[in-house]
Amino acid sequence: MQNKTFVAVAVGLGLIALSACGSGGDAKSSADSRNVTLVSHDSWAVSKNVLQDFEKKTGYKVHVLKDGDAGQAVNKAILTKDNPQGDVFFGVDNTLLSRALDNGLFQPYTAKGLDKTGAAYQLDKDKHRVTPVDYGDICVNYDKKYFADHRLTPPQTFADLAKPAYRNLLVTENAATSSPGLGFLLGSAAQFGDNGWQDYWKKLKANGVKVVDGWEQAYYQEFSGSSEGRKAGGDRPLVVSYASSPPAEVIYAKKRPSTAPTGVSYGTCFRQIEFAGLLGNARNPKGAKAFIDFLVSKEFQEDMPLNMYVYPVVDGAKVPAEFTEYGKAAEHPETMAPGKIAANRDQWVKSWTSLVLK
Fold first, then answer.
1. Dist CA 345 CA 332 (whole Å)
2. Which residue(s) pair with 132 in the sheet?
3. Cβ pair 5, 69 in contact under 8 A
4. Which of 67, 113, 250, 264 is 20 to 30 A from 220 via CA?
5. Is the confidence at residue 270, as pLDDT, over 50?
6. Which pTM value belongs to this model?
């Protein structure tokens, strides 16, 4: 399950000290040529045998630096871009892509296998500074048992969530501190337009929406669903999460249920795409390029869903049966052009904060 919280403002000079691991003299140059350092958010995961296969085929040894939640990792990478902590960065998504590109975080590279990724995922196709790796849908999830017990139909659209029947039932993440929270805000802006999303959030606030800092708190503490086989402690049967959350509920349950205990309100989804990029001033650009090629290989793409609970972007990559059966991707998710996100994101978050949190 992904948890991609981000820091909306620069996180301080103390982070610059983290770049010290990227310093060193010529004595390290030989070793550096055989090592590839991946910088990522905390949700990075890959099967051990799949990563070992890459290392065996290429001769590179992969070192992984998990650098906090998604936006925090992006901000750290920007602060240390002149002396980067690694060679490859994975985990910048379309909600934050413009921030990384505008700050010159990546150098261009056209990955081998890029032609096999869907055109809809190639958001920097003219310059190839980033390579699409996966996608997921941020959507409202619902606790099936609650709605069955209360003989209430689960909401299916953004507009439904503001109806009196769902008063005090929804918990979402802070758009200023959480990637899912930001995605949900952007989804509402795409649905209701530049001039309509604020009125929508006024209705949600009046209808008792609860806002917490991040995904883990929302899902594990506030949501009344089964929380991946553990007893849930929350009392809110609606939560902003992912379309891939129900499969995780099934897979991680101590005793696998015949059906997922949670469902997805597909009319509330926003499409999130994650990218990898070759960091500027990387110590081992050759190894970094090989690793980016690996990320869009069929082997990695088919291994990825059950490790990071996201969907592959490579044509023909198989999706696990659990995804098809318990939580398919949204057919018609809300989307937004990166340029529009870049032009409006900070002001929208500021307005949202004043409107919802004060």
1. 22
2. 275
3. yes
4. 67
5. yes
6. 0.84
